[in-house]
Amino acid sequence: MVRVAEEEGMHYEGYCIRPPSEAGSILLQVTVGCSHNRCAFCGTYRDKRFRIKDDRIILSDILYAARRMPRVNRLFLMDGDALIIPQPRLIRILERIREHLPWVKRIGAYANAKSIRKKSAEDLRRLRENGLGILYYGVETGDDEIRTAIRKGSAAAACVEMGRRVKEAGILLSATVLLGIGGRGQSLRHARATGRLLSAMDPDFVGALTVMLVPGTPLYREYVNGAFELPDEAGMLRELREMIAHTDLSGGYFFSNHASNYLPVKAKLPGGKRKALDLIDAALRGEVGLKPEWMRAL
Predict the structure, then answer these.
(1) Residue 3 above 60 pLDDT?
(2) Which residues face 268 on adjacent strands?
(3) What domains appear along the chain, each with residue ranges and CATH number?
């Protein structure tokens, strides 16, 4: 048995992010950085070399949470791709969480196509049985040309296949898509292709974020050089509308309530699609206010 000193505080390294829906969760950093870390738009982990944290530190943080967070019933595994942890080690981490934080009802993590592919259907079922309840999957776009340009590292068909694998294991799937990632010229093509991808994947949740140009990233350099141009506010709304119009879910939610977005939308599909489209149409006519630029953020 590993003995851990009674230390105060969680051992966070660098800039850490989590999904908006995990704002009230215990944030347990089990990896540092992202195993892919090549996406052209993302600057979050540029200063971190990916590694899995030491088991001793992870256990120390679990014990700290056990002492200080007895009423927090959700936990999120950071950093960018905890699912990439080899299966036996990830199972041990989940078992330690269940042992010391028995009140935690759901554990979540980020995932990408590479990390899901490394887990068999049985692996994913075992993770679910040990508490992994939701995966946040960075889809970004359903257009293969754009996926190549932004260095996602997988094709749309593989993206769908991996998402379906998660759902078939009984794990909730939250897909993240990016408004504006196709630029002004490919905006509506990106929206339609992404809607088709989401329809094929059928996630439980879709979270639409708006691209924010981050200095130091390849996409920002393209923007400075004039090779990439973001849609304006109306263009972003039209893209959002087109994406929702082409998305057919069996009962999932489509959200655009992230801080980066101009217009918050929450719709349960298929029934709520018409109301969402009407709201966007009203915003395009100037009848609904948009978030001012100074309030938008990652």
Answers:
(1) no
(2) 253
(3) 20-287 (3.20.20.70)
pLDDT per residue over 84-120, tens digit each?
Answer: 999 999 999 999 999 999 999 999 999 999 999 999 9
Percent of the chain with pLDDT strictly greater than 70: 97
- Average the pLDDT over each of 38-52, 120-134, 146-160 and give the range with the smallest value: 38-52
Token pair belonging to 270: 């298929």
Mean pLDDT of the chain: 94
